[in-house]
Amino acid sequence: MIKDFLFHVKYAFLLFPFNRKKHLARKLKESFGSLKSDTFNFKQIESYFRKKDHYNAHQVITDKTCNDLDFDQLFMFLDRTNSRVGQQYYYNKLRTIDVNPAQTKLNEELIQTLSKDSDLRIDTQKKLEALNNKDAYNITCLFQEEHITPPKFFFVIKLLSFISLVSLLLAFYNPLFFMVLIGVFCINFVVHYWNKNNLIPYTGSIPQLLKLNNIAANLHLNPLFQKINPNLSVSIKFINAVKSKMFFFQLEAKLQGEFEVILWFVFELFKIMFLIEPLLLFDVLKKLDTKRNEIENVYTFIGHLDMLISIASLRHGLDTYCFPDINKGLVIKANQIAHPLIQDCTTNNVEISDKSILLTGSNMSGKTSFIRTIGINVITGLTINTCFAKSMSFPLLKIFSAIRINDDLINNKSYYFEEVVTIKEMLKESHNGSQNLFLLDELFKGTNTVERIAAGKAVLSELAKNNNKILVATHDIELTDLLSNQFDLYHFSETVENEKVGFDYKLKEGKLKNRNAIKILEMNKYPSGVVHEAIEISKQLDKKYS
């Protein structure tokens, strides 16, 4: 019986890698099209984007616009990548508008194949999963950051290493050299642990680079994937040329388990004796410093492939999506457009042609969500060729927003001052020679009514020039008359029945006519005197401004 038990244990142990791979394949197949269950460390996810040179990009989406459009939440919905490399690359792609029709065509060809060929997709995903370690975030440091340089006394390190080697060899002939070896070892011990601080940033990134290069070499054998970068093999070979010296870092990373303690101790003594760490570290960094472009080429190949699988997964899980028609016209048109983050979102149709759009409506009726819906769909359409609509067309746009503005108490700036600075930047961009989409919510609400309406009208009239498109929401009904020549009027409305407020979130033509704010006060049991006085004042103001 004991023999049978041991046989089954041994058999199960041998099958463990096979069962693990089988389980991973099943998991990847079942999760295709589903949201990612993972934590998001945006500081590390953003690191590639923050240091990337975007000089040739049509536009980089600003932090302000990202905050206005809830970009972090949007990314968590869109991201279905399998590697940390793909995650960083995908984030950068979504914040960088750079339309390339030839690249888009190739992307769609690859996405279609990966969507249909589940075996190819899952095999690729399994390889990419090997780069899901958090240390993979740090690969970008190897080609985006300055490397540490050898200290001025580096020649002493080389000399100490040489003395150790000579002393060890001569000790077999003269025991006195053992004393020299022990003395040098003590000095080397200090140097070795001084160098540990230099080594720490690279003990994770360099092993991950080796893994990245191996995976890229394997995936690049596929003729379909070669289309992403036909010349990638050159970059792979360049990195392989340094592979033998980087193997030390890979070995260092592997000796972390409890059973490797003894081996680690022996290895550590060997490294101290000959100062292997500082000698190899600075030599490897010197060589990697000359291969930054090659490392980034391999990085972007893996990131781009992972991103395409993520887009395929996203689309697979959607009920409705479309490819945008990015044209040279002046019209923004959407059919059954939806906000991707709103569950069971009410869809709307809209066309922005000769005039921009001014939205009126009460709070919670859907104005701001609709503005965000347009902004998000334009961004995803321009970056990943995917819109959350039945159909959508628009020109190549730059997107700017002023939706969510807060007081800056740390720098002693009021809400109004922050808004003034933001709108000033928009006015500047309105003359940038590009077609722009400006998204605004409640202009100048940090000031009094008369000046708010006056300044709002002047700013919106200026922004509307030069074929710019504007979506602006306001509670100031007076603006609907002042801007009727430049803006089409639309509204969202609610119904108040049986002491309940209902919203249909449907975009309607014309300005809002019914007003329910005071009615809602009455429904919430405000004192009758307050309600009555509010109604009377409202009537007087209507007469004054009618």
TrEMBL record:
Q: Which organism is it from?
A: Neptunitalea lumnitzerae
Q: Where are the transmembrane segments?
A: 176-194, 261-282
What's this protein's name? DNA mismatch repair protein MutS
The record's annotation in Pfam families points to: MutS_V
As recorded in UniProt, coiled-coil segments are none
Q: Which InterPro entries match?
A: DNA_mismatch_repair_MutS_C (IPR000432), MutS (IPR045076), P-loop_NTPase (IPR027417)
Report domain DNA mismatch repair proteins mutS family positions: 354-539
Q: Keywords in UniProt for this one? A: ATP-binding, DNA-binding, Membrane, Nucleotide-binding, Transmembrane, Transmembrane helix
> Is Zinc one of the keywords?
no
So which domain of life are we looking at?
Bacteria
